[in-house]
Amino acid sequence: MDFSFTEEQLMIQDVARRIAQEKIAPSAEHHDQTGEFPLENIRTLGENGLMGIEVPAEYGGAGMDPVSYVLAMIEVAAADAAHSTIMSVNNSLFCNGILKYGTEEQKQKYVRAIAEGREIGAFALTEPQSGSDATAMRCKAVRQADGSYVVNGKKSWITSGPVAKYIVLFAMTDQDKGARGITAFLIDTDREGFGRGKTEPKLGIRASATCEIEFNDYVVRADEVLGAEGEGFKIAMTVLDAGRIGIASQAIGIARAAYEATVEYVKERKAFGQPIGAFQMTQAKIADMKCRLDAALLLTLRAAWQKGRFDQGGARFSNEAAIAKLTASEAAMWITHQALQIHGGMGYSKEMPIERYFRDAKITEIYEGTSEIQRLVIARNETGLR
Ligand code: CAA
């Protein structure tokens, strides 16, 4: 067993850190306050390979491994979580699924545009009445005689929905078959029949635009079906396994930023004649924050390593990804809570980024499978019971 990173992994971590510190961190507060979508920064990340980290160079990506993705995501999330949300959807939920299930033409068209940062991608699974219970979807695609499909229905909570050019959509093609009746489609948002609803005002990750989308007799051509008919749920779940590693990394980035700020603060801030870091109550908090941060990181790296094996034909990594996401997101919530408490009034004030970390951390326990769903996945895997 070797805990060291390769030169390539360290290189992409460096690239991500440089962009995160030079371009993203200085405008993080502005993006949080205004909710403005950071298009220019996303393009810069794309031009540097960070929108398609695991995408092979022949499709416009950086051709790196899942561990590199984790390292880069952490750097971006530590500067601003909203940027890392957009990055994770482009990398994990959009490019990843098309790379695994798409045709050569689909990879050249859709993956290249997103990996190079020229366009934004999205992933549409959730509906107003179905989130965790994803197979309860109502959005329908009806096959026509010529092999095309006509799509009708609504999807909600679509990350990057307001700006996405392409979307991986999941729709019901055969209601009677349940999970096996769902098919994945590649959607061009500039085409007739596609519409957008209002942008959601959110507690955190405010610069990552989120909206409802709607399909009214939208026609998908036969060559725009991703994978086989009825394979959609498996595609969604496989892609979400990868996505959960991305969200775990995002949680670690947010938690690390809060932790590092806190370590500095407890050395400087004095109370009762000494730095507050010299008090045992603060020391216990610092030690516990560090343990949870490291545990989250190690579990996430393990999941990424397992995904690398899966990509080479190895076993599924659903359990490792769920364990990583659950641990990292709950660590991020706990660590940002402690950071805020230690900072006291300054933590509650918008003059410091601590309250932003606290707000941003919460979403990691909700999207790409709530903590309850991660526990369900883990318990099912461990017991074999349903
Ligand atoms: N990989 C591959 N296949 C999988 C799989 C996986 N991880 N998990 C399940 N499947 C397959 C099963 O093998 C089964 O296949 P067969 O029919 O061939 O046997 C099929 O899928 C159905 O599986 P289940 O019976 O286990 O399905 P279920 O209805 O009980 O649901 C669930 C399982 C874990 C609860 C799942 O629905 C789930 O993960 N729900 C959460 C959905 C979610 O994460 N939504 C997030 C929205 S996207 C988002 O947040 C993006 C964003 O904007 C950032």
UniProtKB/TrEMBL annotation:
Kindly state which reaction or reactions the protein catalyses. 3-sulfinopropanoyl-CoA + H2O = propanoyl-CoA + sulfite + H(+)
Q: Which SUPFAM superfamilies match?
A: Acyl-CoA dehydrogenase C-terminal domain-like (SSF47203), Acyl-CoA dehydrogenase NM domain-like (SSF56645)
Q: Which GO terms describe its molecular function?
A: acyl-CoA dehydrogenase activity; flavin adenine dinucleotide binding
Which residue intervals define the domain Acyl-CoA oxidase/dehydrogenase middle in the entry? 122-217
Short name of one Pfam family: Acyl-CoA_dh_1
Alphabetized, the UniProt keywords read: FAD, Flavoprotein, Oxidoreductase
Highest taxon above the source species: Bacteria
Instruction: Report the cofactors.
Output: FAD
Q: What EC identifiers does the entry list?
A: 1.3.8.11, 3.13.1.4
Query: Which residues does the UniProt record annotate as the domain Acyl-CoA dehydrogenase/oxidase N-terminal?
Result: 6-117
Q: Which residues form the Acyl-CoA dehydrogenase/oxidase C-terminal domain?
A: 230-381
PANTHER family, per this entry? ACYL-COA DEHYDROGENASE, ISOVALERYL-COA DEHYDROGENASE, MITOCHONDRIAL-RELATED
The family annotation for this protein states: Belongs to the acyl-CoA dehydrogenase family.
**Stated name of the protein:** 3-sulfinopropanoyl-CoA desulfinase
